[in-house]
Amino acid sequence: VDLVQLPSLTFNSKKSANNFRSPKYAVGYATSTSPLGPWSKSDQNPLIDSKIINQNGPGHGDIFYDDKKHLKYVFHTHFSKNELRPRRTGIISLFSDKELKKINCEPTTFRFLKEIDP
User: Fold this and answer.
1) Could you please report the per-residue DSSP string of the chain?
2) pTM
């Protein structure tokens, strides 16, 4: 099962909520038994928000498995509590059941990715 930004022939979808300029921008997910829906939002939403990682504006990312087969989510946050830009990129570990019906994050694994000088 693939995990994507919007429902697109998948059974699990993640989404960002609120406007990206808002400190309350957040990530949630929904599941379905069919790629055509209907979709049910998780009662655990938001999956990632500013309260969980102590950073404003987390959202708009992508889910992947790392080389050790651990589920990860890479996404952007606001630059700081007071500034939106330039946005920063963070990564966090996710945990799920085998069917990817229940997903949780581990807040202590959140970290920013290192910047590379051009």
Assistant:
1) --EESS-SS-SEEEEEES-TTSTT-EEEEEE-SSTT---EE-TT--SB-HHHHS-S--EEEEEEE-TTS-EEEEEEE-SSSS---S-EEEEEEEEE-TTS-SEEEEEEEEEEPPP---
2) 0.81
